[in-house]
Amino acid sequence: MIAQGRWHATTYALSLKDSSLSVAINRDDIVACDLAGRLYSVFHDGRHQRRSLNGAVLQKWASPMGTPSPGTLPVGTTTERQRRWLTDAEAAEVIDYAAAQFQQLHTALRSPAWEWVTPLDRSAALDELLSVIERAAHFNNIAARSDAARCAEVYQPIGILPPDQYLALVLQATTGCSFNTCTFCDLYQQPFRVKSPDEFRQHIRQVHDYLGASLLLRQRAIFLGAANALAIPMPRLRALFEIIHETCHSEPRRSEESHAGQEEIPRRGAARNDTPPVYAFLDAFTGTRKSVEDYRALAELGLKRVYIGLESGHDPLLEFVRKPGHAGDAIETVQTIKAAGINVGLIVMIGLGGDRFAAGHVADTIVVLNQMPLGKGDLIYFSDLVEEPGTPYPTLAQQHDIHALGAEGRSGQRAALRAGLHAHGVKVSNYDVREFVY
Predict the structure, then answer these.
(1) Which residue ranges make up each domain of the chain?
(2) pLDDT digits (tens, 9 = 90+) for 184-206
(3) What dotted CATH number matches 155-435?
(4) pLDDT digits 0-9 by tens, 211-254
């Protein structure tokens, strides 16, 4: 449903979808929430804020890159994306601002002075719209803090997801990472542990109870967490997939969406095809321990794509950063997974190893990627190295006199990797881990 209206000097453009509501205010600001009223994003004063379920708020904006030479593009045309996490006080201000906008809209819609520019087709749509807006109006900073505390009771910290899975429903079959030796990673600090079937079933129940109507925003896919969930031995892993089929089924979309010719999500039931597809991470070394038959069984249970942190095809660099396994393991794992009819997503780290490993990193990674049977449905992500304070990598680099690549060097690596790829139909894109918000 899309409609426009005016109230005094304020113009609103409202878009109520099957899983979210966004409101543009005087074409300057935009506030958006899911159908439970949880704030999702705010565009205000030229900056975009995204709220995570854990309460953190990421702010992004574009700033001019230098001063152009005469005759070139004007200042501000060439921009660079900036980002930072807001302080608690700043986040509270953003959240309260959005709640106030929803409250004002709720008041406006009930006012005799409200004037529809593009009217709603039926009163039921207005009732639904008012219900969502009312919930969003109550989602102020106090409510948001309580919501974040409840999230912490349901989820262990969610380290990272692939960009195409940022809106997946995360179900944590494990905590931590089964290796946790990579010198550049600080995402999984807790010990690795696999939940029992009863624990996993209870976790899913808690996730559903916590999210409520927010599930509609996240039900198109399930991401099986955490860092290396597919490393679970096959008998235990199969049992966890069966639990997903018992407990996770898509809710029906709003009927007006199907009238527009869009696909309608099936209703809750026990059929396997009623369960959203499953995605997960896997390290290449552990991936060799499962057979084609194992992966085929997982495909029948709904596994759609496996994401592998290749990082590099250069074995000396993998050894330097203490990444488990070798490039040959990644080739074998991908060949086995693809033979089972499952797609893969490969993550290559740009700038890893700095100037010392740059040449070998690019050359060997191209060789490794071209030995993999990649095609339509597969993804390759280029993710810039982010040197996190407190991880071993910055110290190791300094000890070995390794200098980080600048923007030009990283851009050159991405261009060289793209140019060297032979696979057809593979989607290649950038992956900035600093912009992950769940």
Answers:
(1) 2-147, 155-435
(2) 988 876 788 999 999 999 999 99
(3) 3.80.30.20
(4) 999 999 998 999 999 888 999 999 999 999 999 999 998 765 44
* Distance, C-alpha 358 to centroid of its chain: 28
Other C-beta atoms closer than 10 Å to the C-beta of 394 total: 16
Peptide bond preceding 56 in cis form (omega within 30 of 0): no
pTM: 0.89
User: How confident is the model at residue 66, as a pLDDT?
Assistant: 57
Mean pLDDT by 10 residues, the chain (438 residues): 93 95 96 98 97 97 66 55 96 98 97 90 83 98 98 94 96 88 82 93 98 94 93 96 93 43 34 82 92 98 97 96 93 98 98 97 98 97 94 94 96 97 95 95
Q: Give the integer Cα–Cα distance in Å for 21 and 33.
A: 5
Long-range contacts of 116-120 (CB under 8 A, 24+ apart): 116/3, 116/4, 116/5, 117/3, 117/4, 117/5, 117/6, 117/11, 118/2, 118/3, 118/4, 118/5, 119/3, 120/1, 120/3
**HEC profile of the chain:** CEEEEEECCEEEEEEECCCEEEEEECCCEEEEEECCCCEEEEEECCEEEEECCCCCEEEEEEEECCCCCCCCCCCCCCEEEEEEECCHHHHHHHHHHHHHHHHHHHHHHCCCCCEEEECCCCHHHHHHHHHHHHHHHCCCHHHHHHHHHHHHHHCCCCCCCCHHHCCCEEEECEECCCCCCCCCCCCCCCCCEECCHHHHHHHHHHHHHHHHHHHHHCCCCEEEECCCHHHCCHHHHHHHHHHHHHHCCCCCCCHHHHHCCCCCCCCCCCCHHHCCCEEEECCHHHHCCCCHHHHHHHHHCCEEEEEEEEECCCHHHHHHCCCCCCHHHHHHHHHHHHHCCCEEEEEEEECCCHHHHHHHHHHHHHHHHHCCCCCCCCEEEEEECCCCCCCHHHHHHHHCCCCCCCHHHHHHHHHHHHHHCCCCCCEEEECCHHHCCC
